[in-house]
């Protein structure tokens, strides 16, 4: 099946972001995409100072538009971090997924908050305004099961392993790495998660805006279960496409059967809830 990643240029005007995002979703559908993904923080600038101002309930304005365009195009739509979600007085970094009938299939709240300090380069603390999610998020398609993470979640190998154990063959991470961590770790982490779990891994970033307070790395990417980069964007706004070949995935798992060779008598990864 064809996967499309929309690397959107995000402005400070929410309505413009929503309209442009929906237009690109329609374009991707017209080119045969069955699963379409938007980037982290696609409807607002990324930054702790913006989260409260742009926050919405779910359902709300942004998710309603995503639901409508998913139904119109009859696709599976991964809504990036569609919005900072407000719920019961707390804010979450939340990704919503909609099916071809417009129904919500999953709502993933970012589990691992982006709190880092690289002296002289970047300091950021999502936990100043956001609360963490506490659950894994998997949704079914006629093609395969898909596991969801958001940006910093990709650094935690255990999460990807749990998704593999749950039968996922594609992991999608809307993300917004920066100019420090992007060139160092963005592709490396994707290839690691793909090879470790013999799955496809897709990451979808906002386009780079050098004038923004937080400058995203861009380079939305798809990696196959062999660890090969099979699609990759640059820094500009674009839509990239790739065909997810589940036959190839099955062949790789047969050739190198690590999933059946795990020493469960010696070690294991388990969920707590």
UniProtKB/TrEMBL annotation:
Q: Which GO terms describe its cellular component?
A: mitochondrion
SUPFAM superfamilies given in the database record: Carbon-nitrogen hydrolase
Tell me the domain of life. Answer: Eukaryota
Q: Which residues form the CN hydrolase domain?
A: 1-246
- EC no.? 3.5.1.3
Name a GO molecular-function annotation.
omega-amidase activity
Question: Does Hydrolase count among this protein's keywords?
Answer: yes
Q: Which PROSITE patterns match?
A: CN_HYDROLASE (PS50263)
Q: What class of enzyme is it?
A: hydrolase
Reactions it catalyzes: 2-oxoglutaramate + H2O = 2-oxoglutarate + NH4(+); 2-oxosuccinamate + H2O = oxaloacetate + NH4(+)
The keyword Hydrolase belongs to this UniProt entry's keyword annotation: yes
CDD domains the UniProt entry points to: nit (cd07572)
* Cross-referenced Gene3D superfamilies: Carbon-nitrogen hydrolase
For biological process, the GO terms are: asparagine metabolic process; glutamine metabolic process; oxaloacetate metabolic process
Q: Which family does it belong to?
A: Belongs to the carbon-nitrogen hydrolase superfamily. NIT1/NIT2 family.
Q: What is this protein called?
A: omega-amidase
Task: Give the gene name.
Answer: Nit2
């Amino acid at each position: 099946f064809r996967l499309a990643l929309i690397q959107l240029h995000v402005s400070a005007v929410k309505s413009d972001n929503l309209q442009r995002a929906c237009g690109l979703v329609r374009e991707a559908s017209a080119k045969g995409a069955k699963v379409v993904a938007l980037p982290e923080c696609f409807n607002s600038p990324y930054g702790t100072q913006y989260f409260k101002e742009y926050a919405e309930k779910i359902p709300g304005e942004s998710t309603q538009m995503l639901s409508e365009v998913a139904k119109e195009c009859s696709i599976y739509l991964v809504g990036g971090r569609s919005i900072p979600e407000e719920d019961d007085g707390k804010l979450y970094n939340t990704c919503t997924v909609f099916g071809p009938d417009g129904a919500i299939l999953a709502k993933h709240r970012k589990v691992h908050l982006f709190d880092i300090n690289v002296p002289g380069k970047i300091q950021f603390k999502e936990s100043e305004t956001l609360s963490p999610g506490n659950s894994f998020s998997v949704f079914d398609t006629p093609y395969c099961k898909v596991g969801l993470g958001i940006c910093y979640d990709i650094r935690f190998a255990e999460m990807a392993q749990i998704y593999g154990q749950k039968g996922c063959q594609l992991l999608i991470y809307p993300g917004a790495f920066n100019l420090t961590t992007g060139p160092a770790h963005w592709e490396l982490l994707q290839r690691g998660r793909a090879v470790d779990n013999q799955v496809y891994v897709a990451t979808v970033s906002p386009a780079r805006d050098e004038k923004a307070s937080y400058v995203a790395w861009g380079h939305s990417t798809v990696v196959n279960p062999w660890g090969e980069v099979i699609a990759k964007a640059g820094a500009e706004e674009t839509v990239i496409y790739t065909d997810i070949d589940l036959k190839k995935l099955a062949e790789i798992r047969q050739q190198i059967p690590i999933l059946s060779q795990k020493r469960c008598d010696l070690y294991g990864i388990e969920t707590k809830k």
